[in-house]
């Protein structure tokens, strides 16, 4: 007789050995929530939003320093280029503004990241249901495409909040205590140009962000799914998959739940891959987002910014702060996917 656990775990050795000799409990009807229903959409959005907030909080100080480096903040340019510089930058921020300084702009980050992450994960689930209908369509190209579309949808929905968040993190003077409204007014009135309105200033760097989201989100979801497949391979299942009795979800149609370290590892791998392939466009985007703060306020295009970076620092200029990027994105993506998968189980989806 085949055990219930074996059916749900695709024949993994770990689950079969646990349940095969135990008496079968009465089969319980698993409640299925339609992915297009308001209930599922709401729960999925909340799970994604909570995951994003948890991940961003873990790396808040590094995120602040990375923005200062990428945007070439004059006060911190002397620290770029080494890990010791990162430590000194964090020390200087802490000595002048305390813990609050390390998390400057973090409230704006959470305001932005909750809807961003919520929309991203929700869009991924919805787009995936259309592009990948069954196991035969689980191809790398379809996974990459699904992730890219989800990332682009989330950026389109929340981009102005990202610009406000970056501007708040960029400010470094101890006496500067700009409110959301102050930042919004400043951005709105910064030389929008004769043919543009001030609203356009809230979309500085939007083009490279969208281009960068294609490889970033696409490779992130692709790498995570592939790493998940690897972790669930029969030869590793007994080490990586939770015993059937410890799983939150008993739904045999879902992939078996990974142990915490395995789930964190798949997210870390996804973060490393996505950061590597998309970083140059991220640097260009940061420069464009603070374009009204430095220089004469002239709105530089994506190509102009790239040329400026090339003239100033060559190829290295496109990778300034990459070490911090890895230190930030790898744990952030790891926590994000982990929190999302666990939140889905707790919320029953």
Automatic annotation (TrEMBL):
Provide the residue intervals of the Solcar repeats: 39-130, 138-230, 258-346
Q: Where is this region: Disordered?
A: 1-21
Question: What family is reported?
Answer: Belongs to the mitochondrial carrier (TC 2.A.29) family.
Q: Which Pfam families match?
A: Mito_carr
User: What does the UniProt keyword field contain?
Assistant: Membrane, Mitochondrion, Mitochondrion inner membrane, Repeat, Transmembrane, Transmembrane helix, Transport
Kindly indicate whether the keyword Transmembrane helix belongs to this entry. Answer: yes
Highest taxon of the lineage:
Eukaryota
The molecule here is called Mitochondrial thiamine pyrophosphate carrier 1
Subcellular location as annotated:
Mitochondrion inner membrane
One GO location term (cellular component): mitochondrial inner membrane
Per the record, membrane topology reads: Multi-pass membrane protein
Predominant location of this chain?
mitochondrion
Query: What parts of the sequence cross the membrane?
Result: none
Q: Name one GO biological process term.
A: transmembrane transport
Q: What does this protein do?
A: Mitochondrial transporter that mediates uptake of thiamine pyrophosphate (ThPP) into mitochondria.
């Amino acid at each position: 007789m085949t055990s219930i656990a074996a059916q749900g775990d695709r024949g993994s050795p770990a689950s079969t050995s646990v349940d095969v000799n135990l008496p079968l409990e009465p089969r319980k009807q698993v409640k299925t929530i339609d992915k297009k229903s308001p209930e599922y959409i709401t729960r999925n959005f909340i799970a994604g939003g909570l995951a994003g907030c948890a991940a961003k909080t873990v790396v808040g100080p590094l995120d602040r320093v990375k923005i200062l480096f990428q945007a070439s903040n004059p006060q911190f340019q002397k620290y770029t280029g080494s890990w010791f510089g990162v430590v000194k930058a964090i020390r200087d921020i802490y000595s002048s503004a305390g813990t609050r300084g390390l998390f400057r702009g973090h409230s704006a980050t959470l305001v932005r990241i909750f809807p961003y992450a919520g929309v991203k994960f929700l869009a991924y689930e919805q787009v995936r249901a259309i592009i990948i209908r069954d196991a035969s369509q689980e191809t790398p190209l379809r996974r990459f495409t699904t992730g890219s579309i989800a990332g682009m949808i989330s950026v389109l929905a929340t981009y102005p909040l990202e610009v406000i968040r970056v501007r708040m993190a960029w400010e470094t003077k101890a006496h500067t205590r700009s409110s959301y409204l102050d930042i919004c007014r400043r951005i709105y009135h910064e030389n929008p140009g004769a043919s543009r309105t001030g609203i356009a200033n809230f979309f500085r760097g939007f083009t490279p962000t969208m281009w960068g989201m294609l490889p970033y989100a696409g490779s992130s979801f692709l790498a995570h799914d592939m790493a998940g497949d690897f972790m669930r391979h029969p030869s590793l299942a007994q080490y990586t998959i939770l015993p059937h009795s410890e799983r939150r979800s008993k739904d045999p149609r879902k992939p078996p739940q990974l142990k915490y370290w395995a789930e964190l590892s798949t997210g870390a791998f996804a973060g490393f891959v996505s950061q590597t392939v998309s970083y140059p466009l991220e640097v260009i985007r940061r420069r464009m987002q603070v374009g009204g703060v430095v220089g004469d306020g002239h709105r530089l295009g994506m190509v102009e910014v790239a040329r400026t970076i090339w003239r100033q620092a060559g190829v290295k200029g496109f990778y300034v702060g990459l070490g911090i990027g890895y230190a930030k994105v790898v744990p952030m993506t790891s926590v994000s996917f982990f929190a999302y998968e666990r939140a889905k189980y707790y919320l029953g989806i």
